[in-house]
Amino acid sequence: ELRHQASPWQRNLGYPLAMLGLLALTGISVLIVCFHVLELLLDDAAMPRGIQDASLGQVSFSIFGSFGAALQVILIFYLMVSSVVGFYSSPLFTRLLPERQDTPLTKIIGNCVSLLVLSSALPVFSRTLGITRFDLLGDFGRFNWLGNFYIVFLYNMGFAGLTTLCLVKRVSWAVQAELIRAFGEDG
């Protein structure tokens, strides 16, 4: 219903630009993770351990300076939103979605706990994937498993592989449906 009620500007310009933006953010995050995998294979310093004595403002946490730092912030925000959307889209947690003016207190508490767990995992998630080296105030680099090469390597490979698979599946199915629709109408 919303697609049919959308203005021609939204349908012809807004939705395609939003999809291109999402594809670009997903592609950039996969590329960064792939480069992090190469770093892991070549250099032990790429492991997501804590940073010792790095003063804020004196050391850049990105190779590309301010642009890289802004890109990291955008990617972390994108990962946060996509994690929440993915969480609530999974079949196990669709019942946890709040309903307007009809949400029981237990469901509200469940949502609060879920969002707290997701937001607490985000800094470790970002550091493990190599999207940022910023340590925040929690010093998340002290977790013992972050020093285990195999866990970090498999985590990065799993993210890159599964994200690429989902991206290819989603894009190829959309293109395939459009081709079938276009050729199906003519034939």
Brief account:
This protein is mostly helical and 187 residues long. Helix content is 68%, strand content 0%.
Question: What would you note in describing this structure?
Answer:
- By secondary structure, the protein is mostly helical.
- The protein has a domain at 149-186.
- It contains 5 helices and no strands.
- Helix 2 runs antiparallel to helix 5 (149-186).
- The two termini are 28 Å apart.
- The mean pLDDT is 80.
Q: How large is the radius of gyration?
A: 20 Å
The chain-level mean pLDDT equals 80
Care to count the β-strands? 0
* Total count of helical runs of at least 4 residues: 5
Shape: globular
The major β-sheet equals: none
Question: What class do helices, strands and sheet pairing give?
Answer: mainly alpha
Subcellular location: Cell membrane; Endoplasmic reticulum membrane
Keywords: Cell membrane, Endocytosis, Endoplasmic reticulum, Membrane, Receptor, Transmembrane, Transmembrane helix, Wnt signaling pathway
GO molecular function: transmembrane signaling receptor activity
Protein name: LMBRL protein
What features would you highlight for this structure?
0% strand, 187 residues, receptor, membrane
Write the layout of secondary structure elements.
Blueprint: H1 2-5, H2 8-42, H3 65-89, H4 105-129, H5 149-186
Helix pairs in contact: 2-5, 3-4
